[in-house]
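Researcher: Please predict.
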Amino acid sequence: METPTLSRAKRRAPVQLPFRSVGDARSHPQLVGERLLRQWNTLFIRLNQWVKTALPDTLNPFAQMGAVANTTFVIALISGILLLFWYSPSIHYAYDSLESMRTSSFLGQLMRSLHRYSSDACILFMVLHAFQVLFAGKFSGPRWLAWVSGVVLAGLLWVDGWLGYWLVWDQRAQLVALGSARMLDVLPFFADPLSRSFLTNESVNSLLFFLVFFMHMLIPLGIGIALWIHIMRLNRSVFFTRAKLTWAILISLTILSVIYPATSAPRADMLTVPDKLTIDWFYLFPLFLTDRLEGGMLWMITLVLTVLVTAVPWLLQRRKSPVARVLESRCNGCTQCYQDCPYNAITMMPRADREEPYASVDPARCVGCGICVGSCDPAGVTYPLLEPLDIRQWINQVLEASSPGQTPPYLAFICAESAGADLQLNAAGESPELPGYRILPVPCAGWVHPLLIERAVRKGAAGVLIVSCDLDPYCRKGVEWTAERLDGERKPALRKEKVGDTPVYHLRVDRTEKDAFLKAARQFQQEGRIPQRSPRSRFYRWTVAAVLVLGLSLATVVPSDAWYPTVVPEHPEVVVSFKHPGQLVEQSAATQKSNDELLPHMRGAASIQRVRVPVRMRIFVDGKEVLNKSYRPGGLFNDGTSLAIEKLPIPEGRHRVRIEIGDSPDPDEWNYVDEREVVLDSNTRRHVVMFDRVSGFRWY
C-alpha cells in the first residue's frame, strides 16, 4: 500500500529513528533490577537452546513448562482418584491400607507412587515456570492478573499436597498435623485448641481426619478455577502438552514409580517425637519453621511473604509498557488484528454509521507487543514511536538516498528481545557492527507488516532480514505469526511475486546468540541466504534425551525423600493438659463505689451474677514445685471451661510426679490430686497426663 500524498516539504524532511539502540524499542515495562533478572533468565535460555539442539519444541519440556505442570497435575488427579480403590480414609485404617497396598497390590502401589511423583513433578515445573516468568520480566503491566492468579494457584496446589501427606497418618503426617494446629490455634475459630487433639493417639479426632480428606478432594476444583483465570487473557493458550511429550512424561513417571516406589514413614504416634525422618521437601518444607516457631511468628512470615510475592508486578515496575491504539477512521473491520492479538486485548465494536465493526484496544490488557500493527493492511493501528506511515516514509528515504552505482543497503527489522537488542544505532539506523544494513528496531517481529517488506524490495533493498527472538518469546505468538506470514500461511501474507528474487529471511536468535546473529547477518549480506545447520546425529539426540529424562527424574525424586533435621527436645517431656470448669460463684455486678456516686433516689439493689472461678494447677517433681499457674475460664463472657496444655522438660531417670488441680474460690483447696512414679528414659518419648471431670487423671 502506498503512502498517502504528503506535502513536498514533509517529503524532504528527514525522518530519524527515535531509538539509540535496538533495545530501546522493547515493549515490556522498565523493571527494578532488570539487569540481574536478565542474567538469571540467560540460564533458562541456554538450557532451552541445549535441549533444542536435539529435540523439537514439541518435546522440549522447558519450552512449555506451564503445559507440563498442567499435564502432571492431571496425572496426579487421575491416579489419586484410582487410589481410592485401595485407600481407606479413616484415622484408624489409613496407614494400614497403605501398608497393605505396598505388600500385596502392585497396581495400588503403582498408583500411589505415580500420584506422589506426578504431584512432585507438578510443583517442580510450576516453580520453574514461575522463575522463568519472573526472570523474563513477564509479570508486570497487564500481566499482573496471570501473576496473581499464579500465586493463588501455587498456594492451592501446595495446600492440597500438605493435606495429602496428612492422610498417610505416619510420622510425617504427625508433624504436618502438629504444625497445622500450631498455626490454627492462633485464630479464634476453635473452642478448644486444636493442638490438644494431638496429645495422645486416643484424643485424635476422626471427624477432623475426614474433613482433611474432604478438603483434599475439593481443592482441585479451586485449582481448576484458578487455572482458568490464569490463562483467561491468553489467545490460543496451550493447556496441556502434545501426545508425544505426554506419553514421555507418563512413561517416565511410571518407570520412576516402579524403580523407587513411594513409602510411608513409621506409623504416627503422638507419644513419640519423630527422630530420624525423611520428608518430601516439595510440599513439607514449612515443617522446618512449624517445628521451631510459634504460631504468631508463623503467621507473620506467611503473610509478609505472600504480600511480597503477590505485589511483585507493582514493586518491580518502573515504567509502563506502550499501548497500541486503533484509528477508527482507517479500520475496515477485517478482524485480523482481533484474531492475531495474543492477549485478547482487541474487541470488535459495532459502528453507528456502517455495517463493518471496528477494532478497539483495551489498554488494561495490551502489553505493547505491536503484533496488531503487523496485522493491519490500512495502517489503522498506531504504536508509540513507530507510526506505520512514518516508518514507510523512513524506508523510502533510506533506500532512495543510495547513490547510482552504489551497492543498495540491506534492510533489517530487529526484535528488541533478540540477539540484536544491544546494537547501537545512529539517527539513520546504521550500526558499526553491521555495515551495509539499515536497521529498524521493532518491539516484536510480529510488528512487521508484509507490505513493509514488499515496499523495501520495491524501493531497491538488496535484501530484507527479519530478526526475532526464538525460545520463550516475550511477545507470545509473534515469532509464530511472523513465520506463517512470510510462508504465505497467514494473513496478511507476503506475496512472493512482489519480492521476486530479492532474498527475504526470518532469523530466529535469542539474546545469548549475538555472535551467531552477526555472523548470520553478514553471511546473508554476502550470499543472500543463511545455510541451515546440519542436523545432529541420532546418538547425540538420544544422549540429550536420556540426560534430560535422568536429570528431571532425579530433580523429582531426590527432594521428595530427603533427610529432615527433626527437633528433639533436650530432655524428656511430661505434658499435662486438662479441660475443666471452675466452680460457679455469686458476685455483685454493681460495686459499692458505683452506688456511692449516684444520688440516693437513683441507687438500686446490686444485681447478682454467677461466674466461674479460674482453675488452678500446680505440679511437683520429686517433691519440688515446678509449676503453679491459674487458668481463666473461656468463652465470650468468661463462663466456659478452663483449658491448659503444659510441657515440662524433666531430666532422664525415675521421678515422682504429683499433680494438683483446684477449681474452688479457696486458693488453698486442691480438689483433684494424683501422684505417680514415671520413668523417663528417652528424649523422643513423651509422657502425657490428661484430666477431665468425668474420667479423672489418665496417664499415657
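Model: The mean pLDDT is 91.
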